[in-house]
């Protein structure tokens, strides 16, 4: 079965690569790899595929708020050349334009805030919808049957909930873990689903986007510091057992430490997921660069292999983000029995 | 859109979406789920505890049974010993009684024999006396023709009788 599937996927990939080869072969060396960064980054439209000169894209709303003009909504297709579907400064619409690097700009150089529903925002809503659907149907099982053995969606979610509660929250936070379990479960599942769905062909690189990881890291930062107890702040501003002159050095380091923790969270997830996507796309790009079926088959095999590793990475990164969040919270709420010796 | 510059729109929607998701899931999914899990875990724990208690009770019961059995055995032994003793005593008593009775019987027999013997002796004596008298009479009929001899003989007899 597995062997058959593998053979089929190789055949199909070789066919598709051969089929789409002329598109890429026609372009310059840069065009053959530009799709990598295009995929990894966010975009104002959702581009699925290109057949010859036909682009299969989903135009997305561009939402802009500016002090002088208020809230405005456009479709991203308004900013494109209707033939080539390319963005450019010359295709400005209502005083705004999207340049060839997918940047939104204002013709009169005025200030504005962009709140567009970009590709990643749509992806985020899809992930959230799937997650909420599964979680709510899992919860429905308990509502309907009471506290019985799980079935269906509950059987999928329950082991994860128990894992996050027992292995992550209880172990890393300590006796006050209960309050933080719902956040940690949501965090784990959102990142995990985002990582997994991001691996689907045509999907957006949601959890590999720095805005997403930044938001999650900031939430963790807020939760950690809002729940910080006396010991935690004392440790930062008057580290026990350190002579006063040394505090001049220690306190700034501790304060920087408060921010490096969420920063590390943000960068770790962003880098791990984005790097995975770049590697996969890099292997795919090899086939177009060498314009060879042999390389196509080999790179497809490599892509399959990396994809399997990425499945692992998806889970590990979700786990690591949640675990570190729990550890930071644990450090903030821990009661120290001692004061003098550290 | 840049790779390492967070987009304002995405941050906005991500924050909004994630907080919304958090709210919905905490309220409608995780709270009831965690409560159900806790309920199930506590019920399992209770069941385990109950099983443990039942097992302990069983063990206690078994120990008690064994104790009772041991006591019963001890009692049985005591009863058996008592019975043995009683039977031994009875046998002993019977033996003593029998020997006593035997002795009594022998005694009685001896007494009877003695009496019989005496009676027999008396009979013999009487018989002897009768015979002697008869012999004497016959002799005397022949010898006692004279008076003197008769008198002497009578005297002698009387003397003898007195002595006797």
TrEMBL record, chain A:
Its main location: membrane. GO terms for cellular component: plasma membrane; proton-transporting ATP synthase complex. GO terms for molecular function: proton-transporting ATP synthase activity, rotational mechanism. InterPro entries: ATP_synth_F0_asu, ATP_synth_F0_asu_bact/mt, F0_ATP_A_sf. It is found in: Cell membrane; Membrane. The chain crosses the membrane at residues 121-142, 180-200, 206-224, 236-259, 265-290. Pfam families: ATP-synt_A. Keywords: ATP synthesis, Cell membrane, CF(0), Hydrogen ion transport, Ion transport, Membrane, Signal, Transmembrane, Transmembrane helix, Transport. The keyword Ribonucleoprotein does not apply. Belongs to the ATPase A chain family. This is ATP synthase subunit a.
UniProtKB/TrEMBL annotation, chain B:
Residues 34-89 form a coiled coil. One of its GO terms (molecular function) is proton-transporting ATPase activity, rotational mechanism. Pfam families: ATP-synt_B (PF00430). The chain crosses the membrane at residues 12-30. InterPro entries: ATP_synth_B-like_membr_sf (IPR028987), ATP_synth_b/b'su_bac/chlpt (IPR002146), ATP_synth_F0_bsu_bac (IPR005864), ATP_synthase_B_chain (IPR050059). It comes from the Bacteria. It is found in: Cell membrane; Endomembrane system. Keywords: ATP synthesis, Cell membrane, CF(0), Coiled coil, Hydrogen ion transport, Ion transport, Membrane, Transmembrane, Transmembrane helix, Transport. It is a single-pass membrane protein. F(1)F(0) ATP synthase produces ATP from ADP in the presence of a proton or sodium gradient. F-type ATPases consist of two structural domains, F(1) containing the extramembraneous catalytic core and F(0) containing the membrane proton channel, linked together by a central stalk and a peripheral stalk. During catalysis, ATP synthesis in the catalytic domain of F(1) is coupled via a rotary mechanism of the central stalk subunits to proton translocation. Component of the F(0) channel, it forms part of the peripheral stalk, linking F(1) to F(0). The b'-subunit is a diverged and duplicated form of b found in plants and photosynthetic bacteria. Belongs to the ATPase B chain family. PANTHER family: ATP SYNTHASE SUBUNIT B, ATP SYNTHASE SUBUNIT B', CHLOROPLASTIC. This is ATP synthase subunit b. It comes from Algoriphagus ornithinivorans.
